[in-house]
Amino acid sequence: MKLTPDMLRQMVRMAVRTRPDEIDCQECFEELDRFAELHLAGKSPEEALPLVQDHLKRCSDCRDEFEALLDALRATSAAA
Question: What residue ranges do the domains of the chain occupy?
Answer without folding.
Answer: 22-79
